[in-house]
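Hi all, long-time lurker, first post. I run a small reading group and we've been trying to get comfortable going from sequence to structure in the token notation. Rather than ask abstract questions, I figured I'd post a concrete chain and ask someone more experienced to write out its structure so we can walk through it together at our next meeting. Sequence below, copied exactly:
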Amino acid sequence: MEELVTAACSAMATRFEIALWGGAPANLRGTAAEALAEIERLEAQLSAFRPDSDIADINARAAREPVVVEPRLFALLQRAAEITHETGGAFDITVGPLLRAWGFAGGSGAPPDPAALAAARAATGMGLVMLDADTWTVRFAREGVALDLGAIGKGYAIERAAGVVRGAGVGGALLHGGTSTVQAVGGRPDGTAWPVAIADPARAGERIRVVQLRDSALSVSAPHGKWFTQDGQMLGHVLDPRRGAPMRGASLAAVMGVSAIDSDALSTGLLVLGPSFLERLRSLPGVAGLLVLEGPDGSPRVVETPGPLDAFGAHGYTKT
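-- Answer (accepted) --
Happy to help. Here is the structure in token form:
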């Protein structure tokens, strides 16, 4: 059997790992290093917390003047706007002011000041962002708008890194960014798909499902990680931009698709919207979704895209 070469790096506040096979070990290590370097480069471009990043530059200037961005980043912003439309605003990269108001920008969260929350809500919404495809420019309609790509950036970085791997012509690879997004390039050395477990975030060691990935991506969103308790209820860092408050309902959402960009963003939209969005996901080519809800007795209840999931077999989604 072919030998697997693995490598890892820390970026975007998480650990990215890559495993790949199909070539001389030295060449595989070189490809892995190039793929991880692309992820690190994208962190420098996308992070709203780095003052020299493209996103920080947009946030600082776009309310006063159009800001030119490089074509691939502009395409990402366009796709984010499309997914905002597809989710009815449940996914929105202008959520930055709300994250600050709720104390989740660099912290674990806290009840917001009512005036600060009102100001943040007034500065939230993709309708306040003007994208000019003729000039590759971004402009904000008012002061206070701020982009935060936390719900799509890891998927974008993994998709770009997967492009590096494909360009190198290796036999196959698996890339992941923490517990957020996984991308498979081809299959494993023995010809089978890559098995990826969806863990139950509320019950250590428990698995919700195992997904078999081949040339497809899986993203998982959950309110755990950053959270605080208010009136006996856990409020997590995944916000509903439409309400200006933490989402409530599901404890986990998972979306499988061909694009890691789409799966990353759509999993956030699914977590916010809940079961009503599953039917919409089923209408998207090659996309499947899964939600974990709390049953009447407190045990997890899994609901997923309606219809036969065998229809997604070509993209690697199987039930076990």
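A couple of things your group might point at:
Residues 121 and 244 are 6 Å apart (CA to CA).
The two ends are 25 Å apart (CA to CA).
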